[in-house]
Amino acid sequence: MQTFIFGHRNPDTDSVCASIALSYLLNETGKNTVPKVLGHLNNESKFVIDYFKVKEPDYLNDTKVRIKDIKYNKKAIAHESDSIYETFMYMQKEGITAIPLVDEEKKLSGFVTLKEIAKFLICGDKERVDTSYENMLNSVDGVSLLQFDDVIKGNVMVASFQSKTFHEEVALSEKDILIVGDRYKILEYAIDSKVKLIVLTGNHVLPTKLLKKAEKNQVNVIVSKYGSLDTANKVILSNRIKTIDINSKPITINSKAYRTDFLDLANKEGHTNYPVVNNKNECLGLLKVTNADNYNKQKVILVDHNSLAQSAIGIEEAEITEIIDHHNLGAIGTNVPINFRSMPVGCTCTIIYNLFVEKHVAIPKDIAGLMLSAILSDTLIFKSPTTTEEDIFAASKLAKIAKVDIDDYGYQMFKAASSIKGIGVHDLIHQDFKSYSIGNNMLGISQVMTMDFNDIEANMDEYIAKLDELASGNYMCCCLFITDVYKNGSYVIYNTNASDIIGDAFDLKETYEGVYIPDLVSRKKQMLPALLEVLQKRV
Predict the structure, then answer these.
(1) pLDDT 10s digits, 168-184
(2) Which of 61, 217, 348, 527 has the most C-beta neighbours closer than 10 Å?
(3) Positions of E strands within 232-371
(4) Architecture of 3-64+298-417 per CATH?
């Protein structure tokens, strides 16, 4: 089973590049991992991916358990042309009380339970058969003597009268199926009447004369080892399963549906068994409600985050096997011990660089370029107070492998990242928006790296309105920091009711929308701690 590696929602360059780099490292050591992203890539990440010609990770919607993850019975499928007998015996073998039926294209065509089979045996038409020669042969556990037809369809009768009475009172035709023992006058009459099928009971055989006549008249003949009564019962069971009163439109569950949705459905409908289908209505098996707790969790590795609020939807249903992060500890818990690598450095990729060194795995040029980009992004080319000597050392080593100049490449990267043209107010705020819990309340911080504050300022009212809308829930404060890397400071826009919070947090003499705060560039070490200190006093 593959392990997914991903960063936080609204992925930044560190989140994206850490996922790709760690996946490469682990796969080189024999693991089976795939990098994923939980949102659209920002301009900076797109620039980095394109610059180093690396495939963009696929989007991961959630890690919730789906039906395909549950260990349902994939063998519990019967063909609609199978006999009642064959279907029943297969159900017994699989230990199930219901089974989906499929057509020639494997598409769901019906659903039958033991209740429908029992109803047929008690109340069904025992005088008609609509089946195949093969079904008939298998049902009576017989031997094929003569076969001319694949389809056997007609009225069933047992030769229970005396020969004379039978001949005088029973009119046979090509639509009849006769069950008879060694009553040769009746057999000759049946063959002369060209009945559809003769089932000889008690392992009796046709005399040569009658056999030749039966062959000439193209009468199908099967020999059964059972007596007349048992044979008659088994002949009835040779009917195709679709001929009984089945459920032609059963309630189904798609293999991609969520397990939680299935439990809601099962609770509402009250059934025990549900056919599993795909988007083409092809049947994949049978899911019993009692099997819903038997499933495989998606294995995941988290990078650049360790809190529920920032992780994938349904992360609580996944199996977290490892976390590599450089942030404060969040509220994610695990049932078993895991590898947790946390270091007080400026970037997750600095930690991953150290892992490459520890595991003695060579770093390719493109992977080195990705990790370098992440370090430069998170440390703002070493201007952020989060920058450590480990970040600078790792960046210098990676730059040599990637064959780029740090200052020149860093400028190109931030220039590409700073453009906000074509990005709407909603998208810009949510591009790198993170939520933090403060008791029962929340703090929302969005950060944008750009040198185009004038473009944002021109639409200030729209940004304030959107932040007010966000804060209308249980947010005490929602703010957007516009960080200018080359000015080494940030402008801040906030929801209307948070003016005093911003003022107190950053010790401002004058607080207004779009106020510039010099030397404020790090969300982790400057913005978040300052705001938390003020808000925690107000909870």
Answers:
(1) 788 889 999 999 998 88
(2) 348
(3) 253-254, 273-277, 283-288, 299-303, 319-325, 339-342
(4) Alpha-Beta Complex (3.90)
